[in-house]
Amino acid sequence: xxxxxxxxxVLLISCAxxxxxxxxxxxxxxxTLSNGxxxxxxxVGFEPAxxxxxxxxxxxxxxxxxxSTDGGATFSTPIVIGEGSNANIGFDGAGKVFxxxxxxxxxxxxxxxxxxGITYSTPIKIGSDANSSQIFFDSHSGHxxxxxxxxxxxxxxxxxxxxxxTFSTPIxxGANGGIYPGFAFDPVTHNGAIAWRNSATVYTAYTTDGGVTFSTPxxIATNATHDSVVKIAFDxxxxxxxxxxxxxxxxxxxxxAHTSDGGVTYGTAKNIFQVITAGVDxxxxxxxxxxxxxxxxxxxxxxxxxxSTDGGVTFSTPIVLxxxxxxxxxxxxxxITGYAYAxxxxxxxxxxxxSTDGGVTFATPVSFGITNPSEKPADIVSALNTxxxxxxxxxxxxxxxxxxxxxxxxxxxxxxxxxxxxxxxxFQNDIVNAISWNSxxxxxxxxxxxxxxxxxxxxxxxxxxxxxxxxxxxxxxFVSWIDQFSQEVGPVSVTVP
Length: 497
Known about the structure:
Elements: H1 2-5, E1 7-21, E2 31-35, E3 43-47, E4 52-58, E5 62-68, E6 79-83, E7 85-91, E8 97-102, E9 108-113, E10 124-127, E11 132-138, E12 143-149, E13 154-160, E14 171-177, E15 179-185, E16 192-198, E17 201-207, E18 218-221, E19 231-234, E20 243-248, E21 253-259, E22 270-274, E23 283-286, E24 293-299, E25 302-308, E26 319-322, E27 329-333, E28 340-346, E29 349-355, E30 366-369, E31 379-383, E32 385-393, E33 399-406, E34 409-424, E35 430-437, E36 445-450, E37 455-459, E38 463-466, E39 475-482, E40 488-496
Antiparallel strand pairs: 1-34, 2-33, 3-4, 4-5, 5-6, 7-8, 8-9, 9-10, 11-12, 12-13, 13-14, 15-16, 16-17, 17-18, 19-20, 20-21, 21-22, 23-24, 24-25, 25-26, 27-28, 28-29, 29-30, 31-32, 32-33, 34-35, 35-38, 36-37, 36-39, 39-40
């Protein structure tokens, strides 16, 4: 019908293209976050609301913090947010960031950022003394829960029910002292579960009310080595409750125990593989891409990894990611894709690899050289871009906190074309701007905005008609797409005529 009444006349064609960001391992030049950082206490994380990457550490006396608003390409100038050591970050997913740190006999402190890590409040004291501390946000109860070990090796906890303005009087988590605790939330039962070691005994407890009370600790192992680190994690994907606790026994064998009820009870301990020394820091987590549990650690044969497809009940035969290793490994899960990322240090280089299938296979590791690393890659975070942070020791006792970023490179390009068309009708002519673009295989939808950021179109079509325009007048449009990770890529601008 249209061809019977209208004459199409093309006045001008404009074109623009964009190559976006997605996954890849292509680490850029090392950047220095700060001079004078200590060898430990580095904590880095991704704040979902702002997409800021936040890193904190101690320089021997002070806690310093930086943030990145561009995926790790650049970082802010460090600021002092407190005095102490062993800083750890917690996020609520809505822009609030808590940092805990301790000052020995002077107590355990927290400081709050309400602007995604740009500024921080004056620290408040929540406990009388501490060796180490961590803080977590319980999305079910809305409580912040702080966990720490006192100098007398007593496990204590405190919670905040008012967004972190005040914290409760600390409680002891039973009569048993503890070190190296692990803590995690079960998304199915909404329990918060804790696991720790006291001498050769591994204890667990849980809270059902956001940290107000904890259960009486129970023993799940009596053969832990005196240097063993205890970790705990829960499956974020399955509709069934699945959790895993790991530790190293007196024979230097990494062991695990499974829970299917939010940490209330645990199954019999199972051997994973032989580690290189009792003091290793084994890594544990669940990927959210397929829901597999993954364990990573330095071992007697190098860096080994094993995965579980049944929530941690059983684990696969370990695979060797590297036959040479000079220290511990690091494991992280991409906040957006759910992919697993592993890193380790060998002879002046950091190696990084990733798995898209829950640890079943890993990509060929890539490496980049670093200067005088003082310990393992201290932390790794991934949110499409992957950032590794570590301390390096230079001459004269100069220790620097350094980082490198790999940009997640989108394999598809968007090309946008603009046409201004004069459509002659029987009674009235119409000037139409036709905006078209190529198909992106991974696109869930496309969006078109005008120069004032007004949304003009969203959908799966590859053309948009803007009617009622003025002939010869310039109009600018911005086209973007939503990729398979629900991230908006672009935009590409085009001006017509």
